[in-house]
Amino acid sequence: MSPAPDAEQLPLLIVVLGTCDTKLQELLHLRNQILLYAEAATVLLVDVGRNAVTDPAISISQKDLLKQYPPSTDPELSTIPRNRITEMMADCATAYLQELHSEKSIHAVVSLGGSSGTSLTSAAMRRALPFLMPKLIVSTVASGDTAPHVGETDITLMYSIVDIAGSNHILNAVLDNAAGAIVGMARAYQRRLTSSKADEAGEKKKKKKRVGITMFGVTTPGVDTIRHHLTSTHNDYEIYVFHATGHGGRAMERLVTSNALDAIIDLTTTEIADDIVGGVMSAGPHRLEAAAKAGIPQVISLGACDMVNFGPRQTLPAKFVDEGRNVYEHNASVTLVRTNEEECRRIGNFIAGKLVEFAKRPELVE
Fold first, then answer.
1. Quick one: which of 225, 342, 355 has its CA closest to 287?
2. Is 171 exposed, middle or buried (0-12, 13-18, 19+ CB in 10 A)?
3. Which of 98, 133, 242, 301 is deepest in the core (most CB within 10 A)?
4. Chain centroid to CA 276: how far?
5. Beta bridge partners of 366
6. Residue 365 has pLDDT above 90, yes or no
7. What DSSP letter does each residue of 11-68 carry, written as one string?
């Protein structure tokens, strides 16, 4: 990687998303702290609240968003349910971030909120922003089931400790940490962007072939052997291992869709078993589609398809015990159930069906 200019000397562009009708004081504090750590930064405060608010620090108002990115219908916001407003404003914020990202170099996006605010801003971040661009949310729901907010993306959640309401020593310290964190992340991201551009301007290096491999505990020895072979005998391979926990499979598929992977060794397709049987680590019904549609080389195996994942033993559905299934406590958080013959047949049909339906060149499927 070529030497990059000192990131401290380059201006940053950081977007602050939030509902200014309920969190203006806290958003302004976060904005001010960011400017304290990066005085030359451009900080865009974007209001995604239900009710329009006026403040000189707001860069993009709620009215601006609705005007520039109008919803398909034009309802009176005060008359529609809160959840629908959240969806509408998330759509507006998504469109805004996508347009801004296509026109300028955003270096980071940060937000704060409760359950609704986190749901809204995380949706916009997931849809609009690429992997590796810093995304941070200070949230009251960061300690719990974060899957609906993070999904397969790299959003960072910071627990607020106290509710995001008003000003106090604890909340101000959390927001101060968040400001410092997002500035540091933005500078690291900016440095990578600058270095990448310097490399492109200079002599182009031969790009390595990017290979994705899925892994689980029981398939780790096989994956390690493959990884060692590819990296020790070929200098032009870069290996990306994905933990097949549901989010891992979706992350891999998303990278394939964005042309960030060149080949797949899908050694561990256990997420399909969870999708079919009802486990907690499903990657959804579209698993195996991305690589087939992209037409990139892929090898598919049946790693860990003999098991379905559930949570702690006490959460295991009683029917599996009643059926006399083989049940194994992997750890305090994960309980495994053996798949039966009919479920294995359905798993095989799922895999074959996806390849037949989506393979770019079905004649190459063996």
1. 355
2. buried
3. 242
4. 23
5. none
6. no
7. PPEEEEEE-HHHHHHHHHHHHHHHHHH-TT-EEEEEE--SS----TT-SB-HHHHHHH
